Each structure stands twice: as structure tokens, then as C-alpha cells.
Automatic annotation (TrEMBL):
Keywords: ATP-binding, Coiled coil, Nucleotide-binding, Repeat. GO terms for molecular function: ATP binding; ATP hydrolysis activity. Belongs to the ABC transporter superfamily. ABCF family. YheS subfamily. SUPFAM superfamilies: P-loop containing nucleoside triphosphate hydrolases (SSF52540). InterPro entries: AAA+_ATPase (IPR003593), ABC_tran_Xtn (IPR032781), ABC_transporter-like_ATP-bd (IPR003439), ABC_transporter-like_CS (IPR017871), ABCF (IPR050611), P-loop_NTPase (IPR027417). It comes from the Bacteria. Residues 525-560 are annotated as: Disordered. Residues 561-616 form a coiled coil. The keyword Coiled coil applies. This is Probable ATP-binding protein YheS. Residues 2-246, 313-527 form the ABC transporter domain.
């Protein structure tokens, strides 16, 4: 086991940790969380021996094999496969020795190297290295390419693969999902679930933490606080603790009211029972956990779009891609006001190509792109960080967008993104990746779009900023298109899902959990197409007949669902009216105790009726989903 006793860490004059003590048990999987700059990376550097603690001691690191994910790639022209294989240095050296001996004709030395390789169980190492590359989204032939041929984000993936290749009892991973798409994130999640050593993970992806860690270490106020359970457990426990602090009460109540408003507006919008149940559970969790984020420095919202046409934007029979290759074909997509669409699909399937084509940043190969008369797109991807002016301040970036806006209005707005004081008025050159990402997002929000197109917006954002973005997106009144490996953000901000796969864009009718299972199993059940024109005509006729029959079966179920939804809306309205009356302080005068008792009784009856209707609605949705699945 690894024991940290009374650790203090300083960086310059800044105290990051004080009197920090914690024990890491063998095989334990832990998440290290906290605001940007709180000292998480310094803890990693200390465990790696790159940084000494100012006071305190560490026990249990002697002789321990430690693997970690480097942030830079220092490699020349070796292949990606050899670079990853180098994570297992002993085996890589034996393979290199055997190859060298064989090339020189020294078969005695080659035999000795092969014997040692067999003893080290190293013959399957090249296969494992290639499996790691495939799991992290690399193409089949990527192993033969030189490391120098890969871009920065892909080199970070190579570092991750190399770390996973390294035999270890302690694995340190710093933001491993930052440059991964959802499919690769799910693969890594599955891999870590089978890792038998001690895992210490820095991540701002709450679903990833939930799935891989059983304990949370939170750096807050220069203290290291340990929580049992995953991130959701931590959030709930912290919310309960902070709810007892009177100073935070007012802000907690305001945030709870915002979430309750979101619940009222969206709780009955799901069209599938699985999605409905997931949404209701998630909203209930959000209400309980709201106080955990009361001290977040981020608080912003999207202003209502000034106007929007209907549809805002559409693609008709569009082929998308580049001059040398087509990526997606025959795409028909219509974006209407209020649509909230999440895109699923593995890396390279064409999600970013679709977003760029919709935004007009990439010309269509064929077909039509038709923006509405008042289409105003707010587009964000990681490349937006590259076009920021490093010598300009956040304030100047906004002033260039809106020369006539009042400076104080802009400063107030930037404060919601935690650009306050000098941070709002000095050049951004020394800013971290997270701070630059916040500024790029702020610029999108400032322009009041009616269509938000977001491609992996949470990269480099910490948990509090992700939470603030989630809350802001929930209140956004325009249309939203989102690509994200952050499943929590997807679940809580989009209402429909589309799958980008095999060159097409189709509706994903199930929920995110089903997509996770489908991705991990790698099973695609596509029906075979009819082989002749007659068979195709016959198939179409049969499909029309089946569709008509299904509509007849579904009609009474759909009618029952609508009736229940109508009753629920009436009950919610009546309950809101009663609760408004109960909020009147004058009602609690002794002379009005009879009226108070009647209202309290009525409130209880309406709450019971609401619960009963909600149960009935979920049962009806399940029946409807079953009928749909039986086709």
C-alpha cells in the first residue's frame, strides 16, 4: 500500500496542499479531482519522484512499478507499434536483440534472446500493442506509420497506449479521455475495469469516473478529502455537507429553482420509456446534488435568440466529405427551433464532417444546404482555440465581436466564465488550455446564436465548468447539435440521438446505455438488402403493410399516453397553484388555520395523484416501447 503522511506542497509562493494524508490500498481505483490549478498534477509529479514534498513523507513506493501517461511524445521515426511496444521496455529490448542478432547471422545470440522472450511471455506483446492501438481508435495500418506523422491529439493517444502497455502496480492517468471520442472512451473504460493494479486518475468526465473508480480524493482549500464511492456518491455527500452551511443556502435555493424549472419543461418530452426513466432519475439526482456546485466560480446562461426561421437549417440529399474522398452520402437532416440532437459514432465515421458541413465551414460534394432566413450559428470545436489572438485580452476578443457594446456589460459577462479583474483585461498568452477553451465558448455564447453546433466542447474543462455548461445548455432556447464523449452532458442536454455509421446518418432510437453495449460488443446487425428489383418492390410493399398494421396497434397506446400526459399537466398546474398559496406568510396566522389545513391536505392529494400518474405514464411508455420493438 502507498501511504501519504502530512504532505505539504508549494509551487513558488503558492501553497497547494497542507497536512494531506491518505492511504492507497493495492488494487484500489481512485479519482483525484479538484479545480484547475489546485495541485492535482503536482501530486502526480510527487508520486513519480519529479517533485519533492515540502513536508511530510510517502511510504510504499520503493520497488513499485509505476506507469504514467506522458503529455509529450519524444520520438523520431520509429513506428507507432514499436513506440507503444516500448512501454514494456524489457520485452521490447528482447525483441530488438533477437532481430539484431538474426540480421547479423548470430543465431546463438538470437536463440538466447528468443529463450528469454519466451520466459517473459513476450511473444504476444506486438499483438497486444496493436490491440491497444485499435481500441484507442487508430486505423488498422496505423502501427506501421512513423510517430512523427501523427498530429498532437493522436500522439497523446500513443502515449496513453504506451502507458497501458507498461507492466505496473500503480497506473497514473492525467485526463486520459481528453483526446478520445466516445467509442474510444468506452473501450478505455472497459480496459481499466480489468486493470488489477492501483489506479489514480485525474479526469473531468464524471461518467468515466463513475465507471472506473470506487473512491474519490478531492483537493479543496489546500486539503485532501477522501470520499467513499464514485463521483456521483461524492457529489451527493458533498451536497449534503454543504447544505448545512448557512452561508450557501440562498445560492443553493436559486440553483435548485432553476433545475426544478428545467424538470417542469422537459420531464415528459422523452418518447421512449428507457429514455424517460433515465431522464427522470438524472433530474432527481441533479436536484439532490445541486448544492455541491454552489461555490463554483462559473455561472452563465445563453440569452434567448432574437429570432429564428423554421426550419433553421436543412441538408437535402447531401454528400459530404473532401475533394479526395466522400465521407457521408445522401444525408437528409432538418434542424428546427428547439431541436436538441446528439451525434453518436466511432472516430472517423464523419461526425465532425457533418458539423462542419452544417455550419458552412465545409462545402458539400453534392446536394443542398439551405439555411433559414435568420439562421445564426454558434460553432465550437478545438480548432477555435488555435485562432484566438494570444496577445489580446478576453475583453478585447469580445470588443472585436461587438464594438458598440458597453464595456461593463462585457466584463460582467466574462465574470460568469471566471474571467475577473486582471484575467479579463490581460493578454491570454499564458492561459491554460482550459482557460482558452472557456474563452472560446464565451465568444460563442456572446453572439446569441439560434443554432449551437458543439464538437467536443468539454475538452480541457474542469468538472465545475462542465456543470455550468450543462446548466446553461439546459436553459438554451435555440437548437443544439452536440458531439461529445461526455455521456453525462449528452444525457442531460439532448433529447434525440443520431448514429453516424457506414457513411450514413440515421436515427438512434434507443438510449445511450444501449449505444455503449453496441459499441463494446462491436456487433452491427444490418439486414441484407434484396438482390433483385422484384424482391425490392415486394419488400417495400410488405414494409408498407407492416407499418400500417403497426400504426393501428400503436394508436390506442399513443392515445392513452397523451391522455395521461394531459392529466399530469393539469395536476402539476394545480399543485403549483396550491404551493403558491402556501408560500403566503399571512396564511400561517392562527385565524386561518382551517384554510391552511385544507391547503396542506390538497397539496398531499395532488402530490399523490402526480406520483400515481407518473407511474402510469412510465408503464404506458414501456408498453409502447415493447410494441415498437415487436414491429
Amino acid at each position: 500500500m502507498i501511504i501519504l503522511r502530512d504532505i505539504a506542497i508549494r509551487r513558488g509562493s503558492k501553497l497547494l496542499l497542507s497536512e494531506a494524508s491518505v492511504t492507497l490500498q493495492p488494487g484500489q481505483h481512485l479519482a483525484l479531482i479538484g479545480a484547475n490549478g489546485c495541485g492535482k498534477s503536482s501530486v502526480f509529479a510527487m508520486l513519480l519522484g519529479e517533485l519533492g514534498a515540502d513536508t511530510g513523507s510517502i511510504e510504499g513506493l520503493q520497488g513499485l512499478r509505476i506507469a504514467h501517461m506522458a503529455q509529450e511524445v519524444h520520438a523520431a521515426d520509429e513506428t507507432a507499434a514499436d513506440y507503444v511496444l516500448g512501454g514494456d521496455a524489457a520485452v521490447a529490448a528482447l525483441i530488438h536483440r533477437s532481430r539484431k542478432a538474426e540480421a547479423s547471422g548470430d543465431f546463438e545470440a538470437a536463440a538466447a534472446a528468443h529463450q528469454a522472450l519466451d520466459a517473459a511471455n513476450g511473444y504476444d506483446a506486438p499483438r497486444r500493442a496493436l490491440a491497444l492501438l485499435r481500441g484507442l481508435g487508430f486505423e488498422e495500418d496505423a502501427g506501421e506509420r512513423a510517430v512523427t506523422s501523427f498530429s498532437g491529439g493522436w500522439r497523446i493517444r500513443l502515449n496513453l497506449a504506451r502507458a497501458l502497455m507498461t507492466p505496473s502496480e500503480l497506473l497514473l492517468l492525467d485526463e486520459p479521455t481528453n483526446h478520445l471520442d466516445l467509442d474510444a472512451t468506452l473501450w478505455l473504460q472497459d480496459w481499466l475495469g480489468r486493470y488489477e493494479g492501483t489506479l489514480l486518475l485525474i479526469s473531468h468526465d464524471r461518467d468515466f469516473i463513475d465507471a472506473t473508480c470506487q473512491r474519490v480524493l478531492h483537493i479543496e482549500g489546500q486539503r485532501l478529502n477522501a470520499y467513499k464511492g464514485n463521483y456521483s456518491d461524492f457529489e451527493r455527500d458533498r451536497a449534503q455537507r454543504l447544505a448545512n452551511e448557512q452561508a450557501s443556502f440562498e445560492k443553493q435555493q436559486r440553483r435548485a429553482a432553476e433545475i426544478e424549472d428545467f424538470v417542469r419543461r422537459f420531464r415528459y418530452k422523452a418518447t421512449k420509456a428507457k429514455q424517460a426513466q433515465s431522464r427522470l432519475k438524472e433530474l432527481e439526482r441533479m436536484q439532490i446534488a445541486a448544492p455541491a456546485h454552489f461555490d463554483s466560480p462559473f455561472e452563465f446562461r445563453f440569452l434567448a435568440p432574437e429570432r429564428a426561421s423554421d426550419p433553421i437549417l436543412r441538408l437535402d440529399e447531401a454528400d459530404l466529405g473532401y475533394t479526395d474522398r466522400s465521407v457521408l452520402t445522401q444525408v437528409d437532416l432538418q434542424i428546427r427551433p428547439g431541436d436538441r440532437l446528439g451525434l453518436l459514432g466511432r472516430n472517423g465515421a464523419g461526425k465532425s464532417t457533418l458539423l462542419k458541413s452544417l455550419s458552412g465551414k465545409l462545402a458539400l460534394l453534392s446536394g443542398q444546404r439551405q439555411p433559414g432566413a435568420h439562421c445564426a450559428i454558434g460553432y465550437f470545436d478545438q480548432q477555435q482555440l488555435d485562432v484566438l489572438d494570444l496577445d489580446a485580452s478576453p475583453l478585447l476578443h469580445l470588443q472585436r465581436l461587438s464594438p458598440d457594446a458597453r464595456q461593463q456589460e462585457m466584463l460582467d459577462f466574462l465574470g460568469g466564465f471566471d474571467f475577473r479583474g486582471d484575467a479579463a483585461t490581460t493578454a491570454i498568452r499564458p492561459f491554460s488550455g482550459g482557460e482558452k477553451a472557456r474563452l472560446a465558448l464565451a465568444m460563442v455564447v456572446w453572439q446569441r446564436p439560434n443554432l449551437l453546433v458543439l464538437d467536443e466542447p468539454t475538452n480541457h474543462l474542469d468538472l465545475d465548468m462542465r456543470h455550468a455548461l450543462e446548466v446553461a445548455l439546459q436553459g438554451f432556447e435555440g437548437a443544439l447539435l452536440l458531439v461529445s464523449h461526455d455521456r453525462h452532458l449528452l444525457r442531460n442536454t439532448v433529447e434525440t440521438l443520431a448514429l453516424v455509421h457506414d457513411g450514413r446518418v440515421t436515427e438512434w432510437s434507443d438510449d445511450l446505455a444501449a449505444y455503449e453495449r453496441w459499441t463494446l460488443s462491436r456487433e452491427v446487425s444490418d439486414a441484407a438488402a434484396p438482390s433483385t428489383a422484384d424482391e425490392r418492390d415486394s419488400s417495400k410493399k410488405s414494409q408498407r403493410q407492416q407499418a400500417a398494421a403497426q400504426r393501428e396497434r400503436l394508436r390506442p397506446l399513443q392515445k392513452a399516453v397523451k391522455a395521461t400526459e394531459s392529466a399530469m399537466a393539469k395536476t402539476e398546474k394545480a399543485l403549483a397553484e396550491v404551493q403558491q398559496l402556501l408560500a403566503d406568510n399571512a396564511l400561517y396566522d392562527v385565524s386561518r388555520k382551517t384554510e391552511l389545513a385544507e391547503l396542506l391536505q390538497r397539496e398531499g392529494e395532488l402530490k399523490s395523484e402526480s406520483d400515481s400518474l407518473e407511474e402510469q405514464w412510465l408503464e404506458q411508455q414501456e408498453a409502447l416501447e415493447l410494441a415498437l420493438s415487436q414491429g
